[in-house]
Specification:
alpha+beta, Pnp Oxidase, Chain A, eight-stranded antiparallel β-sheet, 8 strands, Pyridox_Oxase-rel
């Protein structure tokens, strides 16, 4: 079904301010990088600048698939979603470009990354591995949400 068809069931498209608020309220999404055969997808935490960029930190080694795929990708997609119940959820899909951040960029985005969620395993491993900063520059954004009620609880139309 298309978004137009799903509107009859309570699906709505998010406005740009709703998308920005949603991105600011979340901390984890799924990054999709193009690869031959099938996209390479992985969950990753992010910081959002409130405008047009997300920031990721990669913990990578010398043969990091994530870093290699990122470095050759011309575009990437990023999906952020939250599900409260089957009747209340939101989803934002972003398309953009990834660029490796410079050493000087760390100071500029440190506050954005301060509250980013990371598994404890990654925190511990980052002390002994390479941590790299990447900026995801948003070129296209779309979002949908459903804030409906379970069947039988909707107001009756009389």
């Amino acid at each position: 079904m298309s978004i137009d068809e799903l509107r009859a069931y309570g699906l709505t498209e998010m406005t740009d301010p709703e998308i920005a608020n949603f991105l600011a309220s979340q901390r984890v999404g799924v990054l999709a990088l193009p690869e031959e055969g099938a996209p390479y997808l992985f969950p990753i935490s992010y910081g959002f600048d409130g405008d047009d960029s997300l920031y990721f930190t990669y913990l990578s080694g010398s043969s990091s698939r994530k870093r290699q795929a990122t470095d050759v990708a011309e575009t990437a997609s990023f999906l952020v979603f939250a599900v409260d119940t089957m009747y209340s959820w939101e989803s934002v899909l972003l398309t953009g470009r990834l660029e490796r951040g410079s050493e000087s960029a760390w100071d500029d985005v440190e506050a954005l990354l301060a509250d980013v969620w990371r598994p404890d395993l990654f925190e511990s491993a980052s002390l002994s591995g390479d941590v790299e900063l990447y900026e995801f520059r948003i070129e296209d954004r779309s979002g949908v949400k459903h804030q409906g009620l379970p069947p039988g609880l909707e107001p009756s139309e009389t």
